[in-house]
């Protein structure tokens, strides 16, 4: 396997995980903000 190709795959995997994590975080914060039972301190 070419080392350049491998680094590209690793970069894409890290980017995908970061994107999914960012979407999940925004979704969780949005859900908490919409929840009537959730109050900010």
Topology of this protein?
Blueprint: H1 3-34
Which spans of ≥5 residues are poorly predicted at pLDDT below 50? Answer: none
Percent strand: under 5%
- Distance linking N and C termini: 53 Å
Category from helices, strands and their pairing: mainly alpha
Question: What is the overall pLDDT average?
Answer: 85
Helix count, per DSSP?
A: 1
Listing every helix as H and every strand as E from the N terminus to the C terminus, the arrangement reads H
Tell me the overall shape.
rod-shaped
| Helicity, as a percent range | over 70%
**What is the number of E strands?**
0
- Main sheet specs: none
Radius of gyration: 17 Å
Structural summary, described in words:
Keywords: Membrane, Transmembrane, Transmembrane helix. The chain crosses the membrane at residues 6-30. With 41 residues, the chain is mainly alpha-helical. Helices cover 78% and strands 0% of the residues. It is rod-shaped and about 55 Å long.
